[in-house]
């Protein structure tokens, strides 16, 4: 039994989940631009003025620009090969992928370092989202007395699919159920108004 345990441990170490050296990091449009070297952090250097986006989509609002000579440090990729980085500005209300700013995979830039190992994350491209800094009780109806049907975990987010006149937000959960969040709970990201959804 001891030898089986040792063999399983060795197999686990040999098979741990790291991207293969030639694995794409987030999309085919980026694959050819990824550096072969794996030493040091992934760095992105603009070759020309580079547009930065709030979300990983060309339809997203622009966050700003990066000029040649600046260095950005991508920490994730999203569908289509978009590169996400922390802009190093205060964002107390934003959670998860909403903290990142994004560079299009076809922008004028050069990559160096371990960019092939960046995680690929799910990052919303459009819509209004409720974000939870603390856990949020999600209710069956837009009423404080309604039954709690789920909880949006701290640092979690959910798409807003409707709003009640009194400020309650109807959100869609990952399993496609819908529930309500009180007006004072959480914060919002995206084009959110009274008619969101």
Structure description:
This protein is mainly beta and 197 residues long. The protein has two domains: 22-117, SH3 type barrels, CATH 2.30.30; 129-189, SH3 type barrels (Roll), CATH 2.30.30. The protein contains two helices and 14 strands, in the order ααββββββββββββββ. The chain has helices at residues 2-14, 28-31; strands at residues 43-46, 50-53, 62-66, 74-78, 82-85, 101-103, 109-112, 129-131, 136-139, 148-152, 157-163, 169-172, 178-181, 187-189. The strands form five sheets. It has a five-stranded antiparallel β-sheet with strand order 13-12-11-8-14, with no helix packed on it. Strands 4-5-6 form a three-stranded antiparallel β-sheet, with no helix packed on it. The N and C termini lie far apart (57 Å).
CATH class of the largest domain: Mainly Beta
CATH topology of the largest domain: SH3 type barrels
Order of helices and strands: HHEEEEEEEEEEEEEE
Biggest beta-sheet profile: 5 strands, antiparallel
What is the CA–CA distance across the termini?
A: 57 Å
Describe the structure using short key phrases:
single chain; 197 residues; mainly beta; SH3 type barrels; 5-stranded antiparallel β-sheet; 3-stranded antiparallel β-sheet; 14 strands; elongated; disordered N terminus
């Amino acid at each position: 039994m001891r030898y089986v345990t040792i063999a399983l441990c060795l197999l686990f170490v040999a098979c741990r989940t790291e991207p293969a050296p030639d694995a794409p990091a987030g999309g085919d449009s980026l694959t050819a631009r990824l550096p072969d070297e794996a030493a040091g952090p992934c760095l992105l250097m603009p070759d020309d003025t580079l547009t930065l986006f709030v979300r990983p989509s060309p339809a997203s609002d622009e966050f700003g620009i990066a000029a040649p000579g600046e260095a950005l440090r991508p920490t994730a990729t999203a569908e289509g090969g978009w590169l996400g980085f922390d802009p190093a500005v205060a964002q107390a209300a934003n959670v998860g992928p909403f903290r990142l700013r994004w560079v299009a995979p076809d922008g004028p830039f050069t990559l160096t370092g371990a960019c092939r190992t960046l995680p690929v994350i799910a990052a919303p491209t459009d819509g209004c989202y409720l974000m939870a800094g603390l856990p949020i009780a999600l209710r069956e109806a837009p009423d404080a007395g309604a039954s709690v049907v789920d909880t949006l975990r701290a640092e979690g987010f959910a798409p807003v699919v409707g709003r009640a006149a009194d400020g309650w937000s109807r959100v869609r959960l990952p399993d496609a159920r819908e529930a309500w969040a009180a007006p004072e709970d959480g914060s919002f990201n995206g084009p959110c108004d009274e008619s969101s959804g």
